Amino acid sequence: MGGLPHGAAWMSFDGRELSAGANGGGLSFMVDSRCLEGPAVADAEAWVFAPDDGRDAVPYDQPEVQGARRDALAWWYGMLGDALVCHTTLALDESLCAGAITVVRGQVPVRPSDDPFSRLYAPRCVPCDLFGVVDPPPGPVLERYAGAPWPGGSFGHG
Amino acid sequence: MRAGERFPDLDLPDHTGRPRRLSDLAGGDPLVLLFSRGWWCPKEQRHLRALTALQDEMEVAYSRMVVVSVDAPEVQSAFRAGLGARFTFLSDAERAWLPRLDLLEESDTTHEPYRPTSFTLFPDLTVHRRYDGFWYWGRPSAEDLRRDLREISAQVRDDFER
């Protein structure tokens, strides 16, 4: 695998399990690295919206990907409330999106099929203890930072 | 707070009740920070509708917008949904920052809200420009904000002018 953009980390999904790193079998993709940096939340569930084959990925600039991100900012994060652990899109490279992962815990007031990214790929629910808590992005920025999986990354000014 | 001064790093709950810090919300990007009376004020409704229209440009321009009011988070969440806004509202229902920022609207003793005041900020929260909006025309228009965000971006993006 090539160099990682700042704010990205590799993960893999074999259709049943998620694993950190690019060599876990199945589809490999980049996630917002902050999701893997904090203390992992036990007994969480990851809703994985991803294709089985990377050839079914779609460009980030496609209207359906843009629309899912807008909806996430507008109402999805608010509906999840405290159940949200973290959320990341899945980047195959600088331009291709292979869906998203929404990580939840506890009593979840909504269904995976309500997730805006379920319009891209059907959800698969995976118990996991890999992810830490990351606040949802403030919006309205949809563009990615130097190829990092949205909403991660930064230009580093500050 | 005036141009050139560093804005305090506000810590307040957002419209979902989640604790937030202003520097995190800026996230290394230029920031528009609006102090608003609240959902009930027709001037606020009109101004925020105009600025919500600007979010379609800001979403592709690496620029952030944050609104602070004394409304409770659940009220902000409903107001935000009605506007169709995709940016963050911060709730100072406890008036934790209002007196420290010296932005109390003294003419409204019923709500004790913020006096409408807007700032454009550099990513490090240094004030670029301030707008006193007690009178509606004192508030920043979309054109004012485009100019400010262009000026800030030109200073903080090394490759803005190639």
| Overall SS class of chain A | mainly beta
* Alpha-carbon distance between the two ends of chain B: 33 Å
Shape of chain B: globular
Question: Low-confidence spans of chain A: pLDDT under 50, at least 5 residues?
Answer: none
Mean pLDDT of chain B, rounded to whole units? 96
What is the name of the CATH architecture of chain B? Answer: 3-Layer(aba) Sandwich
Secondary-structure element series of chain B: EEHEHEHEHEEH
Q: Biggest sheet of chain B: strands, sense, closure?
A: 5 strands, mixed
Number of domains of chain B: 1
Please identify the top-level CATH class of chain B: Alpha Beta
Reading side by side through the largest sheet of chain B, how are the strands ordered?
5-4-3-6-7
The oligomeric state of the chains shown is heterodimer
Unreliable runs of chain B: none
CATH superfamily of chain B: Glutaredoxin
The gyration radius over C-alpha positions of chain A equals 14 Å
**So what's the overall shape of chain A?**
globular
User: Helical content of chain A, roughly?
Assistant: 10-25%
Helical content of chain B (DSSP H or I, runs of 4+): 25-40%
CATH topology of one domain in chain A: Alpha-Beta Plaits
CATH architecture of one domain in chain A: 2-Layer Sandwich
